[in-house]
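Researcher: Let's run the pair from yesterday's discussion. Sequence first, then tokens, for each.
Model: Starting with the first of the pair.
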Amino acid sequence: MTNRTVRRLGIDVGGTNTDAAVVEIGADGSASVVASVKTPTTDDVLGGIRNALAQVPHEGVEVVVIGTTHFTNAVIQRRGLNPVGFLRLCRPTGSSLPPTVGWPEDLASEVCGAVAMVEGGIEYDGRPFMDVDEAGVIEAGQRFAAAGLTSFVVAGSFAPVDTSQEDRAAELLAECVPGARVTVSHRLGRLGLLERENAAGLNAALVDLASSTIDAFAAALATTDLGHQARLYLSQNDGTLLDLADAARYPVLTFASGPTNSMRGAALLGGVDDGLVVDVGGTTADFGALVAGYPRQANAAVEFGGVRTLFRLPDLLSIGLGGGSRIRTDPLRLGPDSVGQHLTSMALGFGGAIPTLTDAALATGRLTIPGAAIPDVPDAARVVALAAEMVADGADRMKLSADAVPLVAVGGGAFAVPDALPGISEVIRPSHAGVANAVGAALAQVSGETDRVFRNMGRQAAIDAAVAEAIEAATSSGADPTDIEVLEVEDLPLAYLPGDSRRVRARVVGPLRAG
């Protein structure tokens, strides 16, 4: 909780709409929406942000938080990516599967500029597998520089257990390559080497785009009075804040931040700490689960743009269902293609020629939109029923037990969610549901996490040490050290290792320090 009332502006840039909400957060942790706006997303992204900024009050706003799919879309669409030099600390073993193995060919050819594998690596219990071949690292750096590369990945076996080898290799690369931008894999992933290296590779491929995009975000803010009175952050994929310097270094941390923002906003608007959320936008419906007001985290590998990764991400299910989903016949189906941000010009109800789910909802009276016509949609009732079936199936797949739980329906396409669903105790439609994503962005706090192996110190001492490390990480990122909450602690005894070894993961959050 804060020790005074503060105002924040949250902005979420989606594929169809750019939403903004001013949220007032009280000294007791309560929050209320002061104003909100929904505007179409523009092709250049920044236009939509400027339009949203122009339509909300700025008075008293101290923090602006932007959630964006810009970097996710860059990977999916293969645009704006820079080539990367991959350095793996693995020899004499660990080189049979090279970096970018398993990547789609078109993405690998664009991202993988050069590869070097040298001696090094850590054992699972933290002992060195091999010392780092520093001469080999320097030689690799010289070869990378000769190829014109400035963005690099350093990945080593079990690096999250002991980060010293990756850190040393990064120092050597920075010394021998002027302007080197090095992504160390332990900052982004957990213990699996290939998935961690993949996440770092995607990150390193985005650093050029991240630098220019974040500068543009700051420039857009500077054109308003907010540029002088408010601090700017991006939201990351665990529902917490990412300062501009870290966002420029680690843009992949924004992946899936949009659905996470929606779930955080839904928790507040719907008054639900534990339950399900469905955010139905113009193109997709995203399902997630709330645990203590935060998105449940995924423990399995997640793919982005065809690349398998394993780093902290919300447990999400996305289906191709939204307000702009196109209706197909013979057989009847919805989506996954959508008219997206062109709904108000291409859908039947707005004078266009393409039948969409929004048109079916208008035709059945499920939805009313001022100024929209009542279109003639054959089998409109069946279309609405099909959408309801798709929502019911998504909610059932996201549940972990047979117990009935509440579901909060948010997003501009929430009309697609029926009023009753199997296994759902209550469907909640809160006020400001259409901008839940922007509300969630405004609520973002500061997080800290640790995930490593502790030896010969006992269970409670290991947990205490992990929590202390997570708190230190949160504090160094700007959290108020007097008000940090422990969200998750997991410990796993490792009986096959010598001594009292256990892997402990801890995650904490806290409010941003004032000023």
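Model: Moving on to the second of the pair.
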Amino acid sequence: METIDPIQFEVMRYALIAVADEMCVALAKAAYSTNIKTRLDLSCAILDEQGRVVGQSTAQPCHISAMNIIVPSAIRNYPPERLSPGDQLVVNDPYQGGVHLNDVVVIAPIFLDGVIRGYAANLAHHVDVGGSAPGSLGAFEEVYQEGLIFPIVKIAEAGQMHPDVFKLIMANIRSKKETAGDFRAQVAANKVGVQRVVDLYERYGAARVEAFVEELLDYTETRSRHELAKLPNGVFEAEGYLDDDGLTDTPIRLHVSITIVDGHVTFDFSGSDAQRRSPMNSTLTQTNASCAYVLRCLMDGDVPTNDGFYRLIDIRAPEGSVLNARSPVGVAGGWEVSLRLCDVLFKAFSQALPEQVPAGCKAMVCHVVFGGIDPRNGNYYAFLETVAGGHGGRSGLDGLDAVQTHHQNTQNAPVEEVEICYPVLTHEYGLIADSEGAGEFRGGLGVHRDYSFRDHEVVFTVLADRRKFPPHGLFGGLDGRVARYTVTAPDGTVRELPSKTTFRVHEGEVVTYETCGGGGYGDPLDRRPLSVLRDVIEGRVSRERASKVYGVVFAGDGEAVDEPRTAARRAELRGDAA
């Protein structure tokens, strides 16, 4: 086998990453929907002929881990001899290695000299894939209600969209223009990836590239084992809850037992609830994404993330549980479950690695989904975005305000673009003061965002969480504020909404999201008074909360800390706590 010198190894390693990143740029620039072109709800990867990830983009961490399972499943079930240059496959089946139906994977074989040398693949969240409600998300019992299921079929043949398959898909989709454009963008992005990898083979030769791939995966496994060996031995447990399943008021229990023995990490989810006839179930692929993300956060940032890392993840999740769903239950909210699971995993690791994990975060996707007939042109439209929230405080650092957390990395949907492209108005969009979990290092603030509609009614779906169970504080830090979802009528009457519901919004009504704040880290009475002063001046924390929770008293007009009175106030609060 060819040998690769260290410099060439790094050049080829980053060349594959660059290919995946270029695919992401091509996909975003060619896409039509705001969710893909602006919010970047997409990911791209290069895989070898066995379906092992060897190069990935830096877009959505959850997607890359998912593609490490979806693509191998697809190529195992679709014989390579049925593929030709220019062909591309499509799949979104949750029970063939996929996730929820909106996350559509398109896969292109990379041919060189008539032989498949690898695959270019991308995953993008489509704004609508059919089903019972606009946006294909809602509180449904079965996966069949959630949209069109794509088994592993050709979407492109000999470089062109397959006319019959594409026609069938479009017949089941509401937002036809956006969806057609997004599918073509996925196919085009893969073409870029295929060409760049072919260029790499032609430059270095097949023998050298294939030798590099094996060396890369072995190198990654070696580095990963070295990093995992730093983890302390022991058994670490934690649990957390989702509000409910959307069809009953019963919370969903997530439980993990993490066993670390000499660098071998096993995640056991046997104590979690059984699956529900609801959308709030995670596929094993989504559960794997949570474990991979959390482990990766505890390792050196320079360790490559590819199959050499993923092969070390050992998961035990009983089939038919909420973390390893079995058909036909719904999975539209699977990423909501997966994100909350990240919080539970970090909480478990906090017992062993207190300075390396955050307090509780937003840890929910927090979907905003609506659709109807656009009064400007008479076309059916569908819109989807996710609203940010607070990150948990960390050792030495406050939590960030208004961000997506954990393995969710989608971007902000600007009000200007949304109002130009869709018939919706935003009355308010800003941070929620006093929503942070107080701590020596406070949690980040949640977000307030409104939606209203003129001249038409819409079908609106809230698929979110955190109304009942706030982001937890750590080591004396307080919990963040819970989320709230409401509808305000034209007469000012406010109606509370559950965190999972599909309903009609009438003209003049305003739907409001108030997302949760992140949990605090450490005792709030140990927070630097000047940090509290800054938060008050910037409008993040009120003067009343500064005194009541942080024990900070201000002099005069509030532009300076009254140090003697602050010391006395903190002594008083510590005495009350005792």
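Researcher: Give me one sentence on the second I can quote.
Model: The mean pLDDT is 94.
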